Amino acid sequence: MTDGSAWENKELSRDVGLFGAFATVVAGTLGAGLFVTLGTASKTTGPSVIAMVVVTGIVAMAIAFNYAYISTIFPGAGSAYSFLSRAYENRYAGFVVTWAKWLGYMAAQAALAIGFGSYLAVFLPGVDQALAGFALLTLLFLINMVGIERYSLSQNIIFSLLVVSILVLVIPGSWNVEPANYTPFMTGGLDGALQSAVPLFYAYIGIAVAGMISAEVKNPDRNLPLALVGGTGFLIFIYVWTAIVIYGVVDDWTVLANSARPLATAGKAFLPFNATAIVAFGGLLATTSSVHAVMAAAIKMPYSWGWDQIFPKWFSEVNDRWRTPHWSLLVTYVGAVVLTFWSGGLSQAIGIATFSYLIAYFTVSITVGYIYLYRPHLHGQSAIDFGGWHLVSVAVAVVGSGALLTIGKAWDGALSIFVPWVVIGTAIFAFFWYRGKDSETTPEQIFDTLPGVATKDYDPDFGMSDD
């Protein structure tokens, strides 16, 4: 164990319980896909979206298992950064994967904030969507600033209301399903079904967001796996149930495919009251919760880079009162606000978000296989041990995310920004890495720590302390 002097008073506070971590996975993901994607994805495949939700859900579940496994070995801030840098003892491996993801997280916040504005326009016609998004970002910035405990409390409340708003739609809808509406089921053949996979997987894109706040989750050996795997299972259940309802109550699936608010379109078929208002209220909650979770997660990447001394150190400074990485939060907030008003380049930035998520899922899953096969000491530190079955989740996640990256063309439109962004990041990394060569802190001492975790609580030879 290192003496910890270089990281003194920079650790984060473990104030997020199981429900908060679970809400981060579920509510942090729903806003990305439930209210639009389940309908619009049918353009190429029709009602067979229901089956494709299950197929993409299997890939998502494999990824969740992999993240659950490795997060109990390295329950630190920054998720993929901590996992890769510690598994390979190479800071650049973790940095290059998460550098683009940071931009993607800021873009996701901006897009969801604008989405919040579009739902608000249902109740306040004429509202400026960018200004509404800015107001939301500012409010959530202030909540995140006052500590992870307040984040967790507010996210739990939003999540509970969101689930109620969804149930108001799907429970009565279940009694109005007509099986004949599912025919024809697969309208575009196999090719059409595969084309729907990328947008449908986007509905699961935030499943690993709880890994970003690993250093703030209580009892991570228990709560992280339950949140990651349980939360992903809950998402699959909600998505399948909702898809069954909306395609079962509408007699022409093309109406859903061409609707800006497919859930509201479906709701009009059976609800005795204003379906648009119900869905818009749910959309407000979903986008709010997603921005909230992504913001809490995004700030952990520059924080962890600063902790490891490959980024300005002030990014790893935390507020004495609230234990919040305030500089990292401020810069991430400003970046999201800029993208909110610079909506012309937002679609490409969103492409980077999807692309960077998939790269992280792909590389983390490979790393899980590497640890299981070649690093038995690290494998022994995981709270999860399914024997050789680990390799099944690795194979499904690697093949699934790899197929989405290549066959699904997730790279299309993203590389023109991704490549120069990585070049800029590499230059920044090289500068701080070179400057760190003269530091009294050695790379070995850095790898003996875990971003966000007090040095007294973590030993690389034994993992987390039981105290």
Key phrases:
mainly alpha, Amino acid/polyamine transporter I, 21 helices, two-stranded antiparallel ribbon, 467 residues
Description of the structure:
By secondary structure, the protein is mainly α. It has one domain (14-435): Amino acid/polyamine transporter I (Up-down Bundle). The protein has 21 helices and 2 strands. Strands 1-2 form a two-stranded antiparallel ribbon. The longest helix has 33 residues, at 91-123. The two termini are 16 Å apart.
Q: How is this structure best summarized?
A:
The chain is 67% helix and 1% strand.
- Count of separate DSSP helical elements: 21
Order of helices and strands: HHHHHHHHHHHHHHHHHHHHHEE
Contiguous uncertain segments of 5+ residues: none
Radius of gyration: 22 Å
- CATH fold-type name: Amino acid/polyamine transporter I
**Gross geometry:** globular
Distance between the termini: 16 Å
Name the CATH class.
Mainly Alpha
Structural class: mainly alpha
What is the CATH architecture assignment? Up-down Bundle
Mean pLDDT: 89
Biggest β-sheet description: 2 strands, antiparallel
Biggest sheet strand order reads: 1-2
Helix content: 55-70%
How many beta-strand segments? 2
Assess the beta-strand content as a share of residues: under 5%
| The CATH homologous superfamily | Amino acid/polyamine transporter I
